[in-house]
Amino acid sequence: MFDVDTVHNFFTSWYGILLAVLIGYHVFDYIRIQIVMKKLGCVSPPVELDGFFGFKLLYTSLKHKKEGTLVNFIKERFETVGKDTFSFRIAGTPVISTKNPENIKALLATQFSDFALGTRHAQFKPLLGDGIFTLDGSGWKHSRAMLRPQFAREQVAHVKSLEPHIQMLAKHVRRAKGGAFDVQSLFFRLTVDSATEFLFGESVESLQDESIGMAKDAVDFDGKAGFAEAFNTAQVYLSIRSLAQKAYFLVNNKEFRSSNEKVHKFADYYVQKALNSSPEELEKHSQDGYIFLYELVKQTRDPHVLRDQLLNILLAGRDTTAGLLSFTFYELARNPQVWLKLKEEIYEKFGKGDDARLEDITFESLKKCEYLKALLNEVLRLYPSVPQNFRVAQKDTSLPRGGGPNRDQPIFIAKGQTVTYTVYAMHRDEQFYGKDSEVFRPERWFEPETRKLGWAFLPFNGGPRICLGQQFALTEASYVIARLAQLFPNLASHDDEYPPRKASHLTMCHQSEVKISLA
Ligand code: HEM
Q1: Do residues 182 and 514 make contact, with C-beta atoms less than 8 angstroms apart?
Q2: Which helix (H) or strand (E) holds 16?
Q3: Model pLDDT for residues 411-450, shown as the tens digit of each residue
């Protein structure tokens, strides 16, 4: 056995001291956590083990991501584990995962100040700088206060500006001559065209191309032509940086940097144009129609603030709306009875074909289309644009559900802990949506049960960081759906696969294409 000298020598050596400090730290931390847990009246969350430090889970998740089944896998894991809140490790990082509405409400609303966005700011900074979508604390508060008035009802009510983009989209549809085409890529082009017009005052007109006999304007300043593609590329990198968590800085290659540069060049061009405008010119812009940048310039003249906030909104608003429209037409094409009912409502309110009454389609009248509203709710339920999200604890705290034998006791959340919440899984939970929770059925939104959902339906987030563009998005999506129903009454699906494979980068869309025909 050890003699006294050996033990003494060990504990006076550098490694002995280091070991003692480490053990001391862990013992101290354990005692501290036990005291905090007692004070907060909570227990540890149930733990799931996924192989050595969760490396197997990382491998399986990446495989599912590649196959377009990651969100399905995450949802099924809740079922396999049999708990709606549990803790696990992925690649060594401890994560708490929840789909419990009470926990989500605490994370986003009732305990808002206990949680923050974590590494999002650092991950997204090269493209988005300091803006509403990336900032926490006072920077976020200031952004929100500045931008919120821009989303007032009058501003988002201008559906008329969408019509030229619809006409351009219709040209692509007609070009297919009733045959199959990918509607998702067209919706992505439509939303970047309309968003750039709304935000910067000029559309990038990505739908205008030679395939429909529309050569691009020869007069083009340096930056506009490549903007849409550069923005797409930069976004792919942001999603990889987000996946890499704390190792995000490793994802920073030349392509990423040059895409960011192109995007900034485009935005700066318009920011300078707005800053150079006289007060009379700004007023004229306001009277001609709403342009986000020109209104914001009345509040701040800092070119960086203007650029960053506009790009933040473009990121938050563009792919989400395109995804919503693509999933809507994917489901409509597979459900002829829903398409029929929808057309009945649209034709009754706004006419059809050559007799379409465009002047009747307004922010207010679209909001009164009950079946259209139920349709959008159902699509956002099954395909929430942000299927999974996360927050990081700012201090030792707790969440109200998941502990104890009945999983109804509060659980402990240590400072720095990442908590992911999966709206996708919550939206398909039988507890809230019944036995047919996986079935696409807009009619459920007319049933009394759905009125009691509360936080179990959460496509636009809740609490102080609730989506600012909710009304804008719903109005735009409603207008596009109504107009396509008026212009093309015949819709068919050319996709065999169900459920669809889904790409979940920053937001969710179809993994590849959405093949439909419209005539
Ligand atoms: C189908 C369409 C949309 C959906 C489902 C959606 C959903 C969401 C969700 C879930 C968040 C919370 C993200 C987080 O906190 O981590 C969010 C935030 C946000 N959204 Fe939307 N969004 C949509 C469209 C739009 C549009 C069109 C705009 C603007 C034109 C927009 C502007 C914003 C902004 C500025 C935020 C950040 C709010 C903040 O952090 O204070 N969104 N959105």
Answers
A1: yes
A2: helix 14-40
A3: 999 999 999 999 999 999 999 999 999 999 999 999 998 8
Contact criterion met (CB below 8 Å) for 280 and 188:
no
Is 294 in contact with 274 (CB distance < 8 Å)?
Answer: yes
Q: Which residue has the tokens 């212009």?
A: 487
Report which of 37, 3, 28 is spatially closest to residue 412, judged by C-alpha positions. 37
pLDDT digits (tens, 9 = 90+) for 194-216: 999 888 888 889 999 888 888 76
Residue with tokens 């812009």: 285
320 lines ligand 1 (CB under 6 A): yes
Q: Is the CB–ligand 1 distance for residue 486 below 6 Å?
A: no
pTM comes to 0.93
- How many CB atoms sit inside 10 A of residue 468's CB? 21
Rounded to whole angstroms, how far apart are CA atoms 420 and 87?
10
Tell me, what amino acid is at 404?
G
CA-nearest residue, atom 20 of ligand 1: 467
Alpha carbons within 13 angstroms on the beta-carbon side of residue 206 total: 21
| DSSP of 371-421 | HHHHHHHHHHHHS-SS-EEEEEESSSEEEEEEESTTS-EEEEE-TT-EEEE
pLDDT tens figures, 53-94: 778 888 898 899 899 999 999 999 999 999 999 999 887 788
Residue to substitute in 320, 321, 377 for testing ligand 1 pocket (most ligand atoms within 8 angstroms of CB): 320
Structure tokens at 90: 């992925």
The per-residue DSSP string of 34-89 comes to: HHHHHHHT-BPPPB---SGGGHHHHHHHHHHHHHT-HHHHHHHHHHHHT-SEEEEE
User: Would you state the torsion angle of the CA atoms of residues 266, 144, 377, 109, taken in this order, to the nearest 10 degrees?
Assistant: 140
Distance separating alpha carbons of residues 96 and 47, to the nearest angstrom: 9
* Distance (Å) from CA 496 to ligand 1 centroid: 31
Rounded distance from Cα 318 to ligand 1 centre (Å)? 10
φ, ψ at 223 (rounded to 5°): 130, -30
Q: What does the pLDDT look like over 350-375, one tens digit per residue?
A: 999 888 999 999 989 999 999 999 99
Residue-wise DSSP of 424-474: HHHTT-HHHH-TTTTS--GGGGGSGGGGG-GGG--TT--GGG--TTHHHHH
Confidence at 317, pLDDT banded by 50, 70, 90: confident
Concatenated DSSP letters for 90-132?
A: ETTEEEEEE--HHHHHIIIIITGGGEE-TTHHHHHHHHH-S-T
Burial 382-398 (b: 16+ CB within 10 A, else e): bbbbbbbbbbbbbebbb
State which of 107, 376, 467 you would mutate to test the pocket of ligand 1, scoring each by most atoms of that ligand within 8 A of its C-beta: 467
CB 373 within 8 A of CB 485: no
Tokens 């604390």 sit on residue = 137
